[in-house]
Design a protein that fits this description.
Number of helices: 12
Structural class: alpha/beta
CATH architecture of the largest domain: 3-Layer(aba) Sandwich
Strand content: 15-25%
CATH class of the largest domain: Alpha Beta
CATH superfamily of the largest domain: NAD(P)-binding Rossmann-like Domain
Helix content: 25-40%
Number of domains: 2
Distance between the termini: 11 Å
Length: 329
């Protein structure tokens, strides 16, 4: 069993934003072609603790280099007040020849980077007709920092980064990190989510919200909204938008804004082609002029497996990780 630690995952994945995006894009193409197995994720919740959960995401990626395994990721928002990160994860990769687990990989960094790569991929695809010169970030945490890094690589030319967080202290601290991640851009902090939504033609929402609280009325017509945290937007506001997902069946679960919108409308005709279908054929989607586009990826486990497999391959090449003898019978 090879154990690959957080620092080693960072050594492999940091600074390769375009490669991360291409690995995610390739996984989406394979998924759209039907050569994956992505069961519904398992949510472990705790009585009396509505904000805490642990999620299991098993997945198989086919294609030229098949891989399979599972991510086990916790979300405990109060960790932020304890000085540790909200999400923590481990990924197991299994041999496709014997089924035996062959690697245990620290997964929080992989999870953040695959999420950011997915968001940046959508930003690049969905703004090709009108590139934004600014990016608004609603939620000043690890995910939006990685989204800034990856979007900056995929959509160069950002001149402004607008920040909003419910904690002014967290926003102020994040501003310094954003300035370091995008030194060419002017970083501006605003006091409401609506101001951030209105500030730029590209918006990323990545918070720990568990109930919808924000509508799209403040967005400039034609804005692309990366709704990464899935539960911030009021469901009725989605019915007038273009909605792009990674997998329709996955997106309409677990009381996401899209799930609630489906319940509200009685159908899900408001969902447009998936991002994998767009990658295979951009002609499947022609947005209406001035209509807001919302990208809401549920977060398929196959993306974690794709990046974890890259990490494992590189770790073996570079002699990274700790080999534990006698772990298996």
């Amino acid at each position: 069993m090879l154990i690959i630690r957080h620092s080693e995952v960072g050594q492999i994945l940091n600074g390769r934003e375009l490669e991360n995006i291409e690995a995610v894009a390739d996984a989406y193409r394979i998924h759209a072609q039907g050569d994956t197995a992505v069961p519904h994720s398992i949510f472990l919740r705790f009585p009396g603790q509505p904000r805490n959960r642990i999620i299991g995401l098993p997945a198989y990626r086919g294609g030229e280099k098949p891989a399979a395994g599972m991510k086990w990721i916790s979300s405990f928002p109060a960790n932020i007040d304890r000085g540790i990160q909200r999400a923590n994860a481990a990924i197991i990769l299994n041999s496709l020849e014997t089924g035996r687990p062959e690697a245990l990989v620290e997964g929080s960094l992989i999870s953040a980077k695959r999420t950011a790569a997915s968001a940046a991929l959508a930003a690049e695809l969905l703004t090709r007709d009108r590139r934004p010169d600014g990016l608004s970030l609603i939620g000043c945490g690890v995910i939006n920092l990685e989204i800034l890094r990856h979007t900056r690589a995929a959509v160069p030319g950002l001149k402004t980064v607008t920040l909003y967080d419910s904690s002014a202290e967290r926003a102020a601290s994040f501003a310094a990190q954003a300035a370091e991640a995008a030194p060419e851009a002017r970083v501006v902090t605003v006091t409401t989510a609506e101001e951030a939504l209105a500030a730029d033609g590209l918006v990323s929402i990545a918070t720990s919200a568990i109930e919808p609280h924000l509508d799209l009325r403040a967005a400039v017509p034609g804005t692309v909204v990366l709704h990464i945290s899935l539960r911030d937007l009021l469901p009725e506001s989605l019915l007038d938008a273009h909605n792009i997902v990674d997998d329709v069946d996955h997106a309409l679960r677990e009381r996401t804004s899209l799930h609630l919108a489906e319940q509200f409308a009685g159908h899900h005709d408001f969902i447009d082609p998936t991002i994998g279908e767009l990658l295979l054929d951009e002609g499947t989607f022609t947005p209406q002029s001035g209509r807001t586009i919302v990208y809401a990826p549920f977060g398929l486990g196959v993306l974690d497996i794709a990046l974890a497999d890259d990490v494992l391959t590189t770790a073996r090449q570079k002699g990274l990780g700790v080999e534990v003898e006698g772990f298996l019978p």
